[in-house]
Amino acid sequence: MIRKHFAGVAASALAMAVTAQAFAGTVTTDGADIVVKTKGGLEVATTDKEFSFKLGGRLQADYSQFDGLYTDNGNSADAAYFRRAFLELSGVLYTDWAYTISYDFSHNAGSSDDGYFDEASMAYNGFKPVSIKFGRFDPDFGLEKATSSKWVTAPERNAAYDLIDWANGHQNGLGLQASSTFADSFYASAGVFAKDNNDTDGDSVKQVNGRFVFAPMHDSGNVLHFGVNVASRDVSDTVFDARYRSRLGMRGVETLGGNDAGPNGNRPLLGGANNSPAGSYDTDTAFGLEAAFAMGPASIQGEYISRKTKADSDAFEDIKGHGFYVQGAYTITGESRGYKVGKFDAIKPQNKSIGAWEVFYRYDSMTVEDDNITTASATRDVGDAEAKVHNLGVNWYANEAVKISAAYVKAKADNVTNANGDDDGDGFVMRAQYVF
């Protein structure tokens, strides 16, 4: 019989021996100490659930083509790249401890100096239902952000998130977060993060995040979801990136992990400036509301987001931005979107021959007010900048591991153009995804 306290070593040895994914059932040793699951990755666990080890990952290969506002000269460009190439390791130690390590081989996360980790964290779950998590991970903010990139509906999350990329995006510092799902219908989290940007004294920028969700209906195909989010960071005495800008749903204009549009890619600047001088601003605050409803194969969701960068000098004005999106989706083969309190989950095909087919439409809108802009430039007029994006697409869930997506994206802006004077653009993106 394999002794329980050797389970972690045995799990690691077994994982190293497996070189290919298999889709099989469950295998149990004679001593009933270890269970091995190979359906959708490799998972090894003791039957008492004291130790576990799971090896998985995701690969998302994108091809996109776009023109107009999406390029500097307005001519058509394309991009072929790995949006994500994650190898993920997670598990449980001594029942109450959990770990997650996710490394991004596409290099869209992290940096060469800090490592390309999408996540590297530990969690203590001994204070049930509260979980305390620490390490490197994305701050908690928003419904689409909480939903895994594997199972968000459109290839890219809503464009309004670009206004608050610091609030829920990758961070190379460390964070501490407490979260809980309780009474079946509630989720709450609160966290503090030390970012990799420093003030003039070398003190790291501190950020706090909070999220609260109420989901009185929380089963797949029967969802009613409401949420509120807040994030704030202290940017006083800090040289920081105060830009309000967006790729407008087209990642290929500027990305890592492969080919993009290069110097001709246009990521419109709606307000703010990079390397804002220390002492120019005081706090950067984001606020969000979220709602979703799903019944059977149909779902609708939306979020409202606002941001304010408060001036700390008479030489500067506050910068304000807000945006929202509304999205509708329908699975024409009848499957429902999975749901766990606080986030949507995978669609699992019922018919193994044809898979599951989903169609969707999303409308994104954002507005930025920056009174620091008093003179028009070649690409930015005086006054509020606005941008609107239409997303129309289809997803084919061939099976539980393979998903193929295609989407048409159309953007229109006011008071913002490319170098050629274009204020609108069209694009098309395809994604092939494999998860295990």
TrEMBL record:
Gene3D superfamilies linked: Porin
Span of the signal peptide: 1-24
Entries under Pfam families matching the protein: Porin_O_P
Taxonomic superkingdom: Bacteria
Entry keyword annotation includes Signal: yes
Region annotation (Disordered) ranges: 255-275
Alphabetically ordered keywords of this record: Signal
Bilayer-crossing regions: none
Protein name: Porin
Organism: Pseudomonas rhizophila
